[in-house]
């Protein structure tokens, strides 16, 4: 068999194993050909370690990652770490593993350093590793830069080579409390960010609204665990995305700053998620419901607005309050293929199943029921029924 054909076949096979890090690592050890084909896929996003994996494997994996990254550091960085008593110099590995990375998780690198090295010197190690990424990777597709208030942000966006490595960034995950300088630098460097996920903390940086205003942004996610979080400062920026935004997700504690957003028409919006209540859902759906293909809403005072304004839904996740609302939705939304219902004392699982059997659309494929408890207008999931 032609050697080139073998490589092509292996590449296609290994692509299916991208999230199976243990198997990919085993493939690297088979022979040189398998190593060359699998190593670039394994290191493309080395930070993915499934939660289901045992803690021992996760610990061993993180230890190997940090040792390999330090081995890939240039000679000058190794000397610096050696002088600080952090690292003993060694030869460069035969393969520059860091160069294959297309996803950089500053958060995960920092966590690995803290777990495996001296925490008091973590900033220096993190700095040298990020310098290496800014010099040696061809380009980055995704960047995860989540931090806590106790973290010290590293200004890696100004490192040599950062502009070339970050200019093609398409996905960014970050925290709202990062210093404004970071957001301003990213806004100036990255003009093709399609997906932005923001963890909202008690502090919201002034530079965040400039980043949200990027004209190419298509997917936007806000995640918070702080009931006092206020988004009023950045809500006006969302109106600038009215012609580009395809997916909007609000996950976590309720937000109460969307009164200025309820009348905005998002011409391309197809996916909407409000994990908690949205006080202006009816008005928002009246403007935007017709184009929605996927809707996930944890609580709604008037689920009938879904039946009235969202006839083209294909996927629905909802906490149902009563049988009549469920019947109305199923009768109106005839294109639904998947539905997840959070049952409560107001609508038992038995009653729900009976309605679904009678009113399910013909293209329906997937059903999931969860038993939930209504607590202060928030549905708390307790168990999956089927």
UniProtKB/TrEMBL annotation:
PANTHER family: F-BOX AND LEUCINE-RICH REPEAT PROTEIN 6, F-BOX DOMAIN CONTAINING PROTEIN, EXPRESSED. This is 5951_t:CDS:1. It comes from Funneliformis geosporum.
């Amino acid at each position: 068999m032609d050697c080139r054909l073998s490589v092509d076949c292996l590449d296609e096979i290994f692509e299916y194993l991208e999230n199976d890090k243990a198997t990919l690592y085993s493939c690297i050890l088979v022979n040189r050909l398998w190593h060359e084909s699998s190593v670039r896929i394994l290191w493309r996003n080395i930070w993915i370690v499934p939660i289901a994996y045992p803690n021992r494997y996760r610990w061993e994996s993180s230890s190997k990652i940090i040792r390999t990254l330090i081995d890939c550091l240039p000679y000058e960085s190794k000397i610096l770490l050696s002088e600080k008593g952090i690292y003993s110099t060694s030869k460069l590995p035969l393969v520059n593993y860091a160069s294959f990375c297309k996803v950089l998780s500053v958060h995960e690198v920092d966590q690995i350093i803290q777990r495996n090295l001296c925490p008091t010197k973590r900033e220096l190690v993190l700095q040298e590793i990020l310098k290496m990424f800014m010099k040696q990777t061809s380009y980055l597709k995704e960047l995860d830069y989540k931090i806590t208030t106790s973290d010290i942000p590293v200004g890696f966006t100004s490192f040599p080579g950062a502009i070339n490595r970050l200019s093609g960034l398409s996905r960014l995950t970050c925290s709202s409390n990062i210093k404004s300088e970071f957001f301003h630098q990213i806004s100036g460097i990255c003009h093709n960010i399609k997906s932005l996920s923001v963890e909202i903390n008690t502090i919201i940086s002034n530079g965040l609204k400039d980043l949200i205003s990027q004209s190419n942004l298509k997917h936007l996610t806000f995640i918070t665990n702080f009931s006092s979080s206020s988004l009023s400062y950045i809500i006006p920026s969302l109106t600038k995305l009215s012609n580009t935004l395809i997916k909007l997700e609000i996950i976590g504690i309720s937000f109460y700053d969307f009164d200025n957003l309820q009348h905005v028409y998002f011409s391309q919006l197809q996916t909407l998620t409000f994990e908690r209540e949205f006080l202006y859902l009816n008005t928002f759906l009246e403007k935007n419901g017709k184009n929605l293909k996927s809707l996930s809403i944890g609580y709604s005072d008037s689920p009938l607005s879904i039946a009235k304004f969202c006839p083209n839904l294909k996927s629905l996740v909802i906490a149902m309050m009563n049988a009549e609302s469920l019947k109305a939705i199923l009768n109106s939304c005839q294109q639904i293929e998947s539905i997840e219902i959070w049952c409560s004392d107001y609508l038992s699982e038995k009653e729900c199943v009976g309605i679904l059997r009678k009113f399910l659309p013909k293209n329906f494929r997937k059903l999931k029921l969860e038993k939930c408890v209504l607590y202060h207008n928030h549905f708390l999931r307790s168990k999956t029924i089927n």
